């Protein structure tokens, strides 16, 4: 992982992954994937927090890095750069809750990245948008599909087709972000949410996340069966037994994630 583009720091049981470069190129994508895999595999980590360095989360894709002399060379550059398809899928698929602490604007690829998080907390002055259509391009990195699933078809169409950004209050109103805080409160608030999630049973959080994300792509009847299957599996775990014991003994449970 290139520390000049992405840093990884454990703060208590939360793993903080910080973008240190505004524009996202192939190196940033690889560094984010490596950091995500490292945090997801670390048994001491209960939550992952994504944030940026400075006054913005991300300005989007580094188009100069992906430029080509022809459409074929551009496509090849995008493929080898790992930005086509789902470059941020590791965060969406992580077995741990992912919080995006949005310290400023998130545009293009930055918006695609934040959409892969489970909880998104924004500073009041941030703007969010997908400007790619201005250049005759489609938003990449899973932005279109995750945006439509999160805010609905109508608002997703408006944001994608017009390319116009929206501010933080509007983003919260439509469900793009879950909370808006003052700039000086962002780090403390994100850590507080991470700490609160860390108190919950890690397997319960993992299965709940899986039930929601996978269930949305299933017919209701199938999704209900899937949810029931996860519930049955959870009942066989040590964490479930510890939760019951802690409740009966009127103490805080000590979950082990197994």
Describe the structure.
This protein is an alpha/beta fold. It folds into two domains: 193 residues, Alpha-Beta Complex (2-enoyl-CoA Hydratase, Chain A, domain 1); 47 residues, Lyase 2-enoyl-coa Hydratase, Chain  A, domain 2, CATH 1.10.12. 47% of the residues lie in helices and 18% in strands. The protein is built from twelve helices and twelve strands. The strands form three sheets. It has a six-stranded mixed beta sheet with strand order 1-2-4-7-9-12, sandwiched between helices. Helix 5 crosses helix 6. It starts with 5 loop residues before the first strand and ends in a 10-residue tail after the last helix.
Mean pLDDT: 88
Question: β content, as a range?
Answer: 15-25%
Overall helicity? 40-55%
CATH topology of the largest domain: 2-enoyl-CoA Hydratase, Chain A, domain 1
């Amino acid at each position: 992982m290139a520390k000049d583009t992405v840093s990884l720091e454990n703060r208590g049981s939360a793993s903080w992954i910080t973008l240190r470069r505004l524009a996202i190129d192939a190196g940033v994508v690889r560094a984010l994937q490596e950091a995500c895999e490292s945090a997801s595999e670390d048994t001491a980590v209960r939550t992952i927090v994504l944030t940026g360095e400075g006054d913005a989360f991300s300005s989007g894709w580094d188009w100069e890095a992906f430029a080509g002399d022809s459409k074929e060379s551009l496509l090849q550059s995008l493929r080898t750069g790992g930005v086509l398809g789902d470059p941020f899928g590791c965060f969406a698929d992580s077995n741990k809750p992912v919080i995006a602490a949005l310290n400023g604007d998130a545009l293009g690829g930055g918006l695609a990245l934040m959409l892969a998080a489970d909880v998104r907390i924004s500073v009041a002055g941030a703007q969010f948008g997908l400007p790619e259509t201005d250049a005759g391009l489609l938003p990449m990195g899973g932005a279109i599909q995750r945006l439509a699933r999160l805010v609905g078809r109508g608002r997703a169409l408006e944001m994608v087709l017009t390319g116009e950004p929206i501010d933080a209050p509007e983003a919260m109103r439509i469900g793009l972000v879950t909370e808006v805080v003052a700039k000086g409160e962002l780090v403390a608030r994100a850590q507080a949410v991470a700490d609160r999630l860390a108190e919950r049973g890690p397997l319960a959080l993992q299965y709940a996340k899986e039930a929601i994300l996978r269930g949305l792509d299933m017919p209701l009847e199938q999704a209900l069966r899937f949810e029931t299957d996860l519930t049955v599996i959870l009942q066989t775990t040590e964490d479930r037994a510890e939760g019951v014991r802690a409740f009966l003994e009127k103490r805080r449970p000590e979950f082990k994630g197994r």
